[in-house]
Amino acid sequence: MTVTEADDLVPLVLRAQRGDAMAMSELLSVLAPYAARVCGPIALADGADAAQETLIAVFRNLRSLQDPAACRGWVRAIAVRESVRLAKRSARSTPVESLEHLPSRADVEQAADIHDVLARLSPEHRAVIVLRDLEGLDEVRAAALLSVPVGTVKSRLHRARDTFRKAWSA
After folding, report:
1. Domain boundaries in the chain?
2. In terms of DSSP H, where are the helices of the chain?
3. pTM score, whole prediction
4. Measured between alpha carbons, how far is 131 from 83 in angstroms, rounded to an integer?
């Protein structure tokens, strides 16, 4: 049985929770691209590590998931948490260049791509952009995932989008 994104994961989750190793393997295979899609823009160079940490957490904690229908949301929460954690760790060890030094978009050879601009945002700002603009969550759900007030999500999103726009149009 092959599960696609459109398919219902509930039967697969239930089988994996009961200890079916094949179901767990298939579930992790289905969730891996989703975890990578969430982790990559937040953790950047550490995106693959964050996705791997996400899948490890899923493997270890799947039995604690009380609502199998909420699997993707649960994985999203883990992915965001792991991505921010790894990005913060990486940011402490790697100084970030100033946004003022981005090359102009008019210079084709040195144009700043989205990854370059995202790299200059804090992990918290990247997480908010990913949750709102890529995942399509509203402020309330994003705030719950990030464990911050709704107002914090709104201000981070405003600052992140403003910084992104300025850096992209420089």
Report:
1. 1-95, 98-170
2. 10-17, 21-43, 47-61, 71-93, 114-119, 123-129, 139-146, 150-169
3. 0.74
4. 12
Look at residue 5 and tell me whether its pLDDT is greater than 50.
Answer: no
Q: At what angle do helices 139-146 and 71-93 cross, to 10 degrees?
A: 60
Angle separating helix axes 71-93 and 47-61, nearest 10 degrees: 140
Residue 106 in this model has a pLDDT that exceeds 90: no
Residue whose entry in the numeric block shows the structure tokens 């994996």: 16
CATH code matching the domain that covers 98-170, chosen among 3.30.450.40, 3.40.50.790, 3.40.50.720, 1.10.10.10: 1.10.10.10
- Contact, 121 vs 159, CB < 8 A? no
In the 8-state DSSP scheme, what is residue 111?
P
Residues 6+ apart with CB under 8 A from 4: 30
User: Does residue 98 carry a pLDDT above 70?
Assistant: no
